[in-house]
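#lab-general

N.A. 3:47 PM
ok so I finally got the sequence cleaned up, no stray characters, all 1451 residues accounted for. can someone with queue access submit it? mine expired

B.Y. 3:52 PM
send it over

N.A. 3:53 PM
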Amino acid sequence: MERVHTKQRASTAFNIQRRLPSKQVSRARHASPSASTGADRPDLVIQNSMDQVSVRNVYDLFSKFDKWEITELLTARETNWLLTNADIYKTPTEHPTGLIRQLQAFSESHIDILFPVDDDIPLLDTREVHQLLRELTIAIYSLNAQPTLSLEANFDLSSTCQIPTAFLDTRLGQIMINCDAWLKSVWHGVFMSREKRAKFADRWRHTGEASITRSVLHEFEAAGLQDISQDVDYSEAKNSFQPEPKSEDQTQSDDQFLASYADDLSMVLTLHLDQVSQLKNCLMFNGNYTIQSQIKTIQEKLDNQQFQRLKALLQVHENYLRRTFTSKTEVRKYIYLLEITCFLFSLLVGLKRRMKKIPNLNRLLPMIIGEDVRTERELPPFMYMKKQSTNIFPIEEETMFHLHGGIQFEYETGSLSNKLAEILNGKNESLLDASRRTLYGYLDLPNSPNMEYHVPIVEIDGKKYYHLVVDIEPYYGLSPVWLRVIQKSVESAAQKRFLNETVIYEMYKKYFGRKKATYYKNPEHGLRVSAQRGLACIFQALARKTPPSGLSKPNLRDGLTLMHYAAIHNRPIIIGILILLGVDVNAKSEVNYVANGGTPLHFACRHGSLDAASCLLGNLAAIQTDHEGWTPIHHAAFCDHVPIIRLLYNKHQDLLEQTTKDSRQSTPLLLAATSGALDAVQCLVSLHANIGYKDELGHTVIHLAASNLHTNVIEYFIRLNSRLVPTWTILVDLIIHPDLPMKRAAVQCLHIMTTHGEQFWRPLLEADGIQRLVRLLKITDVNLILSTLSVLCNISTNTEVRVAISTAETNLSEMFANLLKFHNDEIRSKTSILIADICFIPSNQERFLASDAVVGLSRMLDSPIEDVLVNACNAIDLLCRKNQFMQNELAKHGIIEKLTELLALDSKILRGTVASALASVTYNNMANQLIASSKGALKLIVELMQDREFGIRYKGSLAIEALAINNLENQKQFLSKYLNVQKPLNELMEIRSSEEWALEVREQAAFSLWALGGQIKSQQRYVAECFGIPHIVTMLLSNSEKLQYVSLNAVIALADESEPNQNRLYRENILAPLIRLLKHYHQLSHRVLLVLVQSFSVLCIGVSLAPNTLLQNAIVEHNAISMIIRLMESTQHVDLKVECCLSLARLVLNNSANQKQLSNDFNVADVVVRFSEINESDLKLRALLALSLFAYNNLENQCIFKDTNKISYNSFRTFIDSSDATYSALACFQVIVLARVIGDTEDEQVTLTALAIMKLADLLLSTNISLITQIAKYISSLARVRTGISDGFVSCQVLERLIEKLYTPSPPATSEDAGDEVEMHSTCAIAIGALSYNKTAFRLLYNLVRRDPTLYDKIVECGQRSCMSSEFVKFFESERVKGLPVDSLSLHLRVLESRSASSAHRRSTFSARKTPSRIGTANSHLRIQTTSVCSTIPSIQNKRHLTLSSKLSHT
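B.Y. 4:20 PM
back already:
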């Protein structure tokens, strides 16, 4: 059944046979035996046609209107210049341009309409489109109404939705009101949903009554008034409102100025067609829209200068609305439907006037009725609430205000294009058949409100188009029948008189209040206000009682006639009434009581009244000049009304280059540039206006835009990049213009442009603009100097600009020093910033220091003005960043002391800026750090960290990092209980926000906290504990490179030689994020990769190179070995290769299973070859350390290394003889480990080992804490590696020296030898414990602790009981239980009184004992084989004997 039905419907579509159904035909024949009888009886025809859908739909059309609305409808129906029949509107008119005039006739009885699909909105509903088509057809063919909307303010602050009566309670009227209500809601920043508006429509007037207990604000909030940010789609809308940066006074002045004209301002949505094309009965269009402001204030009250200021303020609002209005899907759909309406209106008017055709309303889907199409007659006022963050419009809080605006349609289009012919060229004629069948199939489906009737979509050349089919039928007289039904209702309504003086007074009172209503009872005033408000029926009634001369009489106050008022306020119906009453359409306004002003067309074009301008042009209004020599297009261009420009251009294309009749001879483009009308400029350029035209004064568009500071126009022509307008050349030439005001304007434009964007510095530099700007600084004009400095400061962050400024003048430093002597604080501030930027070039620093510039900066810090202090601090900040020379020079002038004093002031902004400057002055500068801390800066910075604003705390954290870096004393103070800075830093790291600034704050807080760890191991571990392992894991998983870097360092600090912490990290699942990072190593920075690889090394090695087998195996199980090898092979960085090799060596240290797995994928011999080619000292030593760890307790690897013949003693000699003791100690450790690889014979191996041991013993005499710590680690690691090494340590008095270091205090923090005293004591105790496994050391140590048990307690306290030989511990503690000689009271007191004597006794006993070993034999070999060794050993021994003999004598 469906297939048969479809075929029948398809045939109907192609044959378009229009006949009544059989039942209707039979009924008509019964009722009327002859056609003539039916024609003579209209009522009978209507009755016989009641079964037609179209007739039933309009039968009761007028029942939804009240008497006032019907009266307005009847008046408008008879006076619409475009739609009223010529027998009623009896004046000559001209058809609108474009589609209405150029519609080509065709024979088909249907129209195919194609328009592009918008994927951002839901699919169109055919029923809704048919509803719009039906409403437009009724309005155009019967009621002579065209769609438009204006919101008119009433005296009680409500807004009347003024739309033609024909569109009341229609879907189109509803769409227009809803769309405009959203537009005003976004504009003003508050909204109320349609449903809540309807409920609040009458209730809001009673909010101020005494019976209402709640305040007016509470009543509005309860009714549903909300801030626009509460709507999901507009939650970020207000962030797009970006006014120009101004001073507070200027902002307040602009707000007052804008508010003073609020009643005359409106924001209008205009729908237009970008392109229309036709091919036979198929049409295609592209719709678009613009949002533009309109100003109804006449020129006598708002001159051109004031207009430019007001328009510039409104342009910010326009741009805001254009960016945000369509963020809502509902709004986008409304606009799309209105674009369709714009096209359908033009099409239907063309069908009516040119083809005498009409859409067949019987071939549409059922009509939407009832509440679904109910329109609001009035909108309640809005109100700003106190809790709103930003008010878009300058209206006081808790003050009701009405809405201004509207919607208009630009139905006069450009010429039809041939795009459709190009698209359908060569396409199959049946391309649209399928979608056509779908549409006709909808008509046979049962009517269901919930059913979806999607408009069919066709795809042509990869683009999607909606396809709409409209059936048409002949239109003549009152055919089709539904026209007779409406005509009957019209005639019936016209017979009833409704309008009288009482009704007029009541309507005035409704709109204007009682007082003004009484005033408007005067016919002259009533005519004027009716023309302004668009009260057509009242105006017509009053006009008929007024003589023609009275209708043309100008108002004495402003010289305007009634037609001028109608033109200003966009009232085409009023204009039509006046024209029918014989009023001259070209009447001029009076200026100084002389009728030489503008015509109504001038005023319509100036005020953006599109419908009025179209009406005047359609009624053959002439293009004339006013008293200023301007024609209508000049006013439209100057006032930025693009729809008017297009309208005039489509009517008269020669107007595009029409010049004004004044001394300047300006074109519309020049006037648009003069007023900053960017939209008008773009429109005129797109219409191919002459952009290179110069007026009589030789000014181009750039001259005029620059002289009026319209940078938006200048930036547009920069983007246009036309050779006819060399924008940059003109701008740079204006800098040296002989006219001082023009110079100022050009520089101010450059200031605005460089403030907005960073892309302008290069073309300015290339046009030689920098040198010309610097030369302007010699002029004595303060304003010009200030603007010039602002431009240079905006662009001086670029290196090339700094170079250009530096080379612009030879005496630049003296010039800037003179500027610092100005009494203008802003000039001094900007000069200081410029000096700071220029001094980034090292050669300029001494150049400026030779002048008085630094002195000027220092004096600026004495200013009482906050802005000056802030700018001076910013200059100091930039001047000292990564520049130690400038840090020291500024410190000499007392800058640090002054900055510290400013930190105590009660100003958040200033304190934050001072903290940033102090950070730059003290960063990594020990002397400046000490000055700041001595002046109390640390406490003030910590107090600053208590502020609530994250920006202030961020700058405080900068200062903390700068003051703590490489300064042990400051680090300890910050971490003390007194300051406890780690707490606010931890809070700062816990910011939970996804914005970029929050990430930057977290990064800086992490860096500052880590800086407090310094170089002290215990301190680093404490800071790492402050982070906490869970937070460390979180930082590891972040995408921030800085957080990853800090967290990896914290892992290293926790795990370094601490098996408990290593196991704790393992239990906290630290390996998962580490392996995750390693898998994505190609995404990591170089420094993160380095510490990542180091973290694996540290996690698996404990004290004395004791492996943590649990961690080694766990890391290897995660396939870390293969990933590290892959990283080592892929990287080009040698240091990373070395670290990878070190990590692998530690992963397999003393672990046979891991060594076996490594050997499968890794050849250690290749490493030796690669590392032998390294020349850099640090890397060479690290590479040798890696080889040493591979050889540590691994005879197999030692043999492999020896076979390569690449490792010799010469590789270590340089480091052993180095003046850097750290290098020497590490090289000695490596020589001892690799002795079997380096030495060819056993004697040579012993010799090298002896030499390294003696060197380490000598280095133990050093006072450098870090060095002693490192040597103690080496000793503890080597003590049990090979037989004889511990004997060598004992023979070289290493045990004695280690015991001495247990009691050695740390040097002052400022000393170069300062370090971690706790770590030194710990490592020394561990080394002593490692030596206790040696039998000789066992006996020596036992004798010492037996005489002084506190030594044993000290070793256990600093190290661990487990680090000592268990046999020693057991033996000593058992002896201690039995009783020791030291237990006697006298000896105990002597030990307590003389710690040094006891130490000397231990040393003498230790010295007197001679322990035979292989080392003694090695000493004799060394004396014979090596001259240097022979000379070294006796000296060492002599020195040792002298020391011991002196101590023995003391004992």
